[in-house]
Amino acid sequence: MSTRKSTIAASAIAASLLLALGACAPDPADSNGTTGTGGSAAPTGDVKAGCEDYAVYGNLSGKTVSVYTSIVEVEQADQEESYDKFEECTGATIEYEGSREFEAQLPIRIEAGNAPDIAYLPQPGLLRTLVERFPDKVIPASEGTVANVDKFFSASWKEYGTVDGTFYAAPLGANMKSFVWYNPSVFKDKGYTVPTTWDELLALTDKITADFSGTSTKAWCAGIESGDATGWPATDWVEDVMLRTAGAEAYDKWVSHEIPFNDPQVVAALDAVGEILKDPARVNGGFGDVKTIATTPWTDGGLPILAEDGETPECVLHRAANFYQNNWPDGTTVAEDGDVFAFYLPGKTADDKPVLGGGEFVAAFRDAPEVAAFQAFLASDTWANAKAKATEGGGWVSANSGLDVNNLATDFDKLAASVLGDKNSVIRFDASDLMPAEVGAGSFWKEMVKFFAEGKSSKDVADAIEATWP
Fold first, then answer.
1. Could you read off the pLDDT of 426-455 as tens digits, one per residue?
2. Rounded to whole angstroms, how far apart are CA atoms 313 and 296?
3. How many CB atoms lie within 10 A of CB 347?
C-alpha cells in the first residue's frame, strides 16, 4: 500500500498505520544458533557475495521449512520468489503450500499431529483460537523475530500477534481494503467525477443506474465465493460501512463485543450495504441478479469492469482491497487513464477518512532453528524488499519501515500510500479478523452468504451472528 516516494513518505505511512514492519535481522553477535534465536551468523569469510544480509540465519543446509497459507495463485508465485535468496544463501528449502481451504484445514492438521512448520494466519482471532485450543502446539515467536518486531513494528501490530501476554506471530504483509475499482473510460465518457463523500457515492450510483437503464450494465458488481472462506468479502463491506455510518469508537466496541452484534448501529450498517448490493437495479453487473453475489468467485467479482475498446462494460464499480490488483488479467493497465483504477471509498464528509486494513501473521508450530530463522527472516526488511521486487504487477504492500518504497510496483500503490499517509485517516484492522474465530471466520461469513442467497434481513443476520458469540 505504499509507493515510489521518498523514505519520508514511508515513515509517514508507518506513522499513519501505526505499523512498522521488520527491517534488519538481529545483530549476528546476538545470535547463538540455538532454537528460538532465528539462526546464527556464518563466519564473515564464509559469506558468499550477495548473501551478506542472510549471514545472520546461519548455515541451514539440508533443513526444510514447510509453509501453509491461504495465499494462492497469482500471489503465491510472488511469495515463493521472495524466498529464493534465503534458500540460496542459507541452504534451506522452503516448501510452500497454498490452499483455499486453509482456515478449515489448519486446525484439523494441528489436531492430527500434521501441523505445518509455519502458517500465515489472516486473522488475529484465529491465532487466539489456536493458542487456546492447542496451547502446546503454537510456538512463541523466536528471539530474532521478537527483535525485528520490537525495532520495526509498532506496539499495536505486535499486540495483534500476542495472546495473553505471549507474543507468537509477526505481521507479514498489510493491506488496505477501502477502495472502489472503476472503469476510467466510462468516467471520462459520462463526465463522472470521483466521489468524496458517502452521499456523493450514492448519487454516482444512481447516476450510473439511470444512464445505463435498459442495458445489461449495472453500477456495481460483486462476488463473495471463496471456497471454505466464502462470505469474507461481504464482511469487508460491512466493516467498511460500519466505520462510515457508526464511527471508529462504535466499531471498536463492536469488535470487542462491548456492543452486541445485533446492536442497532450494526443493523444500520448492514442495511446500508443492502441499499447498494441488494438492489437489483444496481447489481450484479456481468453476473445476474442479487443472488449471484453469493456464488460469484471473489477473484472474478470485478472483472466485468473491463471492456474491449469501444465496448460498454457490464459493471462500473467494484469495492475491493488493494490486493485485488493481482486479479486483473495480464496486460491490464492499472492507471487513472488506463483500463481500470480505484478511488478511496469515501466517508461521511470529505475530511472523514476511515480506512479498513488487514494483514497476515506468521505463526510457528515446530521448535527448531531453521523454523525460527525463517520466521525472523519474514519479519525483516530484507524479506519485505525482496517481496516488493518480486511483485512486479503491484497489489502488495508492507508497512515495514525498512521497505524502500521505490521497490513497489505501480501508481496504484502510490494512491494507497497517499490515503494511508493522510493525517486525517483513521485506520482500523479488519473486524472479523479480530473477532473470535467462530464468529469472524464462521457465522459472520455464513450469514452474509444467506444475506444475499436467501434474502435474509439485516436484523435476522445480526441476531443469528450474535447468538454464536462465545
1. 888 899 988 998 999 999 999 999 999 999
2. 17
3. 24
Pair 320, 175: CB distance under 8 Å: no
CB 267, CB 292: distance < 8 Å: no
C-alpha Rg value of the chain to the nearest Å? 22
Confidence of residue 418 (pLDDT cuts 50, 70, 90): low
Helices 232-245, 264-277: axis angle to 10 degrees equals 120
Residue 436 CA to residue 442 CA, distance in Å, equals 9
| pLDDT at 152 (0 to 100) | 74
> Would you say 17 and 420 are in contact if contact means Cβ atoms under 8 Å apart?
yes
| Cβ-contact 354, 248 below 8 angstroms | yes
* Residue-wise pLDDT tens digits, 48-73: 899 999 999 999 999 999 999 999 98
Exposure of 91 in the CB half-sphere (CA atoms within 13 A)? 11
CA distance 284 to 236: 17
Grid cell, residue 347, equals 466517508
Question: For 275-295, how does the pLDDT look when each residue is reduced to its tens digit (9 = 90+)?
Answer: 999 999 999 999 999 999 999
Residue 359 backbone dihedrals phi, psi, to 5 degrees: 175, 175
| 120/361 Cα distance (integer angstroms) | 5
Q: Is 247 left (phi over 0), alpha (psi -120 to 50) or beta?
A: left
Q: β-strand 64-69 against 341-344: which pairing, if any?
A: unpaired
